[in-house]
Amino acid sequence: MTFSQLVMAGLGFTPIFCLSLSIFGAIPLHMSLRFVIPVVAASQIVLGRRNPELGRRLIFGLLAGMIATGVYDLLRLYIALLGVWGDFIPNIGNRALHSDSVSPIWGYCWRYLLNGGCLGMAFSVLPLRGIRQGIAYGTFVCSCLFATLLFAPGAQDALFHLTWTTGAGAMVGHWIYGATLGGILLLWCPEPAMAGRKFRAEEDAEPDLELESDKEVRSYEQVYLVR
Question: pLDDT tens, 147-173?
């Protein structure tokens, strides 16, 4: 795995890390939205333009992550309608815009674009593919969520109270997210990032070999004609 892949993956985790920092009380989320997120977006664009193959994967990862978040929300919103699990996503929008009266849409924008989408971008540039590795990825992300809920002061009031029911719902939801993400990217980008770039490099090398062969033939013909 290259240094560029590590940087892109780290940038993909940055928005959800910023959310965790805000819940721990380290950096307010509206400050991260103003100063950190634009740098993350600009960096991903620059790195993607410098490496078009990885840039293409970033776009696929963003789209796949947003789709996977939507599939996850089918379960989460169903549980919320049952009254078991409250809808905490609007609170994220309140934190991001530093106001208690913003539309819930802003919380969902953060969730789909900056959480689900950016985590999908991170997954897409790592040497991971398929449903099994996607489920493992979802397990890792959910474990980080549980750590925040358990150790950050007031986290369960800001997000949701961790019980056996909500914990199981969160874990299953992240499995659904990971499986959907891994399955979609397996269709869109069958080869992991490293193998995909190597394959492209081999394709690019083939015309050079053909050119060298043509040069040898022409050189031989010229020598033959001179004689």
Answer: 999 999 999 999 999 999 999 999 999
Q: Give residue 215's pLDDT.
A: 53
In the chain the beta strands, taken as DSSP E runs, fall at: none
- Domain segments of the chain as ranges: 3-190
The model's pTM is: 0.84
Residue that is written with structure tokens 């869109």 in the block? 188
- Cα–Cα distance between 117 and 54 in angstroms, integer? 16
Sign, Cα dihedral of 31, 39, 118, 10: negative
Alpha-carbon span 139 to 192, nearest angstrom: 20
What whole-number distance in Å separates Cα of residue 87 and Cα of residue 101?
16
> Using CA atoms, how far apart are residues 207 and 95, in angstroms rounded to an integer?
54
Residue 187 has which token pair?
């269709």
Helix 164-188 to helix 118-125 angle, to the nearest 10 degrees? 50
Residue spans of alpha helices (H) in 82-163: 89-97, 104-109, 118-125, 130-151, 155-158
